[in-house]
Design a protein that fits this description.
This protein is an alpha+beta fold. 38% of the residues lie in helices and 29% in strands. The chain contains 12 helices and 23 strands. The strands form 7 sheets. A 5-stranded mixed β-sheet has the order 5-4-3-8-15, with helices on both faces. Strand 17 and strand 18 form a beta hairpin. 41% of the residues are buried.
Length: 456
């Protein structure tokens, strides 16, 4: 049950569901309301602020990022007239690693119905086969396939009869420091984190239909600083990826090649189409004045600059992620969203590059969102609400690391206490996990010493 500032709500009061989307260009806060135990939520407000202190999805200036979060929250609070304290945070930054593992449990010598405990045992068996680097953490664990007695393609094994349950899990691993910086930012903005979710997943949930998810599709969210990739097949998320290149890089290309200011490059790149079927003539130019100078830019040259960067992005960076997903087919093709997806002619350009069906999509909940804050740039924000609802409807669909917030807070406290002492006595790598391990080791040695003193 969701909380407001005053604590838990009585059952006859609507619940407040809040998502915070940390982006490179903007920070969004989506607020939804639902009746107690309802399967759907009505978006009642969207707050936003220009994102500062975040580059390529990564927090690079904590104080600036905190101020931006506070501004977005205040904007949302003014719109809905309620105080916001608890949020589910969507972010995208740093390296994302996908690790597939398998687990199996026996249900007994005679067939019986699968219980929740059996599913949890299978999940634990699969997780035991995942090795995680010391400086990284599992953020999501997503079941991608169940099978009963060797029969694959089981959507939900709960209650079905079998003698053996097999499961395939996708563990989504991210750097611990990335999560810690996001947690520090949100908490310093005066909020309590209910959970974390990666932006590629929320962007996908914001736009993909059940039919596309079942058939096989790729959702590509092209934002200002990053491009996220989510691959779905058989109704489940099979792969998440992130590329640290977005619309800002296209703007930088235009600015650098044409030798014009960044703000003007951003403005004029919106004035052209990148449809391959459209050929600009030599006399089609964009003329403007900037910094006491007159400029004339060929539309054809500008179009070629933008097309070259997008073609390189999809052919060299997005395509390998799709291949790594190892999905047999993608009949629903690619679903484009995010601010860059508004570029005129982008779908036609990528149809030639990727040789897959292309669809540009607004959020599925576009009609439930405030006018002016319901276009492609807000797909990820809307997807947070869908993520929360889907996760509660099926607790095994998207399993997040529920203890990660608490563990990171404990690590942070240990870090502050131990770093000066450790650095003075030994050459220990400054990672949160090693510091935590050293804390446990010190505690164990202290207890062992006391035992020996009592004996002797």
């Amino acid at each position: 049950m969701f909380k407001r500032a005053s604590g838990y709500l009585p059952e006859d009061e609507p619940e407040l569901v809040v998502g915070l989307d940390l982006g490179t260009s903007k920070i969004s806060v989506v607020v939804a309301e639902r009746e107690y135990n309802s399967d759907s939520a009505q978006i009642i407000g969207m707050g936003q602020a220009v994102s500062s202190g975040i580059r390529k999805g990564m927090i690079v200036n904590l104080e600036q990022a905190v101020r931006s979060v506070k501004q977005a929250v205040n904007d949302a609070q003014n719109m809905v007239g309620q105080e916001i304290r608890n949020v589910t945070v969507s972010f995208g930054g740093g390296e994302i690693t996908n690790k597939l593992s398998s687990g199996m449990v026996s249900l007994g010598r005679s067939p019986r119905a699968v219980t929740s405990l059996d599913i949890e045992r299978a999940i634990e068996a699969a997780q035991a086969n995942v090795s995680i680097p010391a400086n990284q953490s599992i953020l999501h664990t997503i079941p991608v396939e169940y099978s009963l007695d060797g029969n694959e393609g089981i959507e939900d094994p709960l209650g079905m009869t079998a003698m053996r349950l097999d499961i395939q899990l996708q563990s989504i691993i991210v750097p611990t420091t990335t999560i810690q910086n996001v947690l520090n930012c949100v908490e310093r903005a005066g909020l309590e984190v209910e959970g974390f979710v990666l932006k590629p997943l929320t962007s996908a949930l914001g736009v993909i239909t059940p039919e596309e998810s079942t058939a096989g599709a790729v959702v590509v969210d092209m934002g200002g600083g990053t491009t996220s990739i989510a691959v779905f097949f058989d109704g489940r998320c099979k792969y998440l990826g992130l590329v640290p290149i977005g619309g800002d890089h296209i703007t930088n290309d235009v600015s650098s090649i044409l030798k014009i200011p960044i703000n003007k490059a951003e403005e004029i790149k919106r004035e052209i189409s990148i449809d391959p079927a459209l050929n600009y003539t030599e006399d089609q130019n964009i003329e403007f004045a900037c910094s006491s100078r007159d400029y004339t830019v060929s539309k054809d040259d500008l179009s070629e600059i933008v097309k070259s960067r997008i073609e390189e992005l999809f052919d060299s960076l997005v395509r390998p992620h799709i291949i790594n997903a190892s999905v047999p087919m993608l009949p629903a093709g690619i679903i484009l969203t995010g601010g860059v997806s508004k570029s005129e002619g982008l779908d036609s350009l990528l149809l030639n590059v990727m040789n897959l069906p292309i669809r540009v999509s607004e959020p599925l909940d576009v009609n439930k969102m405030p006018p002016g804050r319901n276009s492609q740039e807000y797909s990820s924000a809307a997807g947070i609400i869908r993520y929360i609802i889907e996760k509660e409807r099926d607790s095994y669909r998207y399993m997040d690391n529920r203890g990660i917030t608490k563990n990171i807070s404990m690590i942070d406290q240990s870090n502050r206490h131990l770093v000066p002492e450790v650095s003075a006595t030994s050459k220990v790598k400054d990672t949160a996990r090693e510091i935590k391990e050293k804390t446990i080791q010190f505690s164990f040695m202290d207890e062992l010493s006391k035992v020996f003193k009592d004996i002797f």
